[in-house]
Amino acid sequence: MRQHPEAGYQPDMQDKILVISCGAIARELVRIKKLNQWDHLEFQCLPPELHNQPAQIPGAVKSKIESQAGLYRKIFVAYAGCGTGGALDEVLDKHGVERIPGAHCYEFFAGSDQFQSIAEAEPGSFYLTDFLTRHFDRLVIRGLGMDRLPQLKTMYFGNYKRIVYLAQAESRELQAMAREHADYLGLDYEYHACGNTPLSQVLQPVLGH
Description:
- The protein is of the alpha/beta class.
- It has 10 helices and 7 strands.
- The strands form 2 sheets. Strands 2-1-3-4 form a 4-stranded parallel sheet, sandwiched between helices. A 3-stranded parallel sheet has the order 5-6-7.
């Protein structure tokens, strides 16, 4: 019998698909797994803070793939391009691993057609998801240093016109928070209820079996 050095390894992992995910979309992936009864999926998440340093994403994904190689039937990466300039795709091509198509999570949360329509209507849009709405202070205000240097707000967001909240869950609380974030940045506010369907449809062909 093949020996697996990983602590806690279970033989039936060979029947499962490992999804290496950005921590910012973990909640949505778990929800979609439950809705579709995809019990063959396992998730391992990387820190969402990597999005503030996208050059580190390919290396982090590479390390995770190599540490889990051979333990699962298949590995799939739940990242889009995410500002990596093609470097993530180079890593995935080398290891024969697929990822979610698209340039960023906003595209697969909204669906490509709807996102293109939203983006073309106002190129100067800053997008929020449920996760980013919840963690705006940590990832945007403090993550970009605006709490220490308020003048950075104008430097980062001076060319934006609006915040677009692409909502996965219907939550009045999150909508109110997103409006507050738009007010903080001095931007217009727009809301789109996207739900789980666009991302679920993208994942179905690669994870639904």
